Amino acid sequence: MIVTRPLLCRILLGRTEPAVIDLMQWFALAMVPVGIVQALGFNLLAARRYRLCFVLGGCGLAYGGSLLVWGTSPGALLSVMTAGAIATLVILAAVAGLERLGGGPMRALDDSVSRA
C-alpha cells in the first residue's frame, strides 16, 4: 500500500495529490473494522440471530448519526469511522457474551420471530 499510493492516486484522480496520498493509508486502516462489522452482519442475518441483528441495526443508526455530526473533515471522518466500527464490535461481543450467559431480556423476541 505504501509503494502503490501515488500510482493509485494518479489512476483514481488523474494527478498526484499529497493530501490524498496521506489519507489513503488511514482510509485502508479504517476499512478493516468496517469490513469486519459488515461481514459479521451478513453472518448474523444468515444465522438468524435476530437479537444481535437488532443490536447491529441500532449501532448502525448511531454510527451514521455520529458520522453526520462529527465527520466534518476527511481526517475526522476516518477517525469516527474507525472508532464507531470498533465500538460496534465491542458492543456486539458484549451482547453475544450476555446472550451466552443466560439469554437476556430479548429471548422472547427471538422465539417469537423464529416461530413466524
Layout of secondary structure:
Blueprint: H1 5-13, H2 18-46, H3 50-70, H4 74-102, H5 107-115
Give the SSE string. HHHHH
* Shape, per Cα inertia axes: elongated
Please identify the structural class as seen in this structure: mainly alpha
> CA-to-CA gap between the ends?
48 Å
Task: Tell me the count of domains.
Answer: 1
> What's the gyration radius in Å?
18 Å
Approximately what portion of the residues adopt beta-strand conformation?
under 5%
Which regions contain 5 or more consecutive residues with pLDDT less than 50? none
Number of helices: 5
Helix content: over 70%
Number of strands: 0
> Kindly state the mean pLDDT as a whole number?
80
* Sheet with the most strands, sense and barrel status: none
Please supply descriptive tags for the structure shown above.
5 helices; mainly alpha; 116 residues; 0% strand
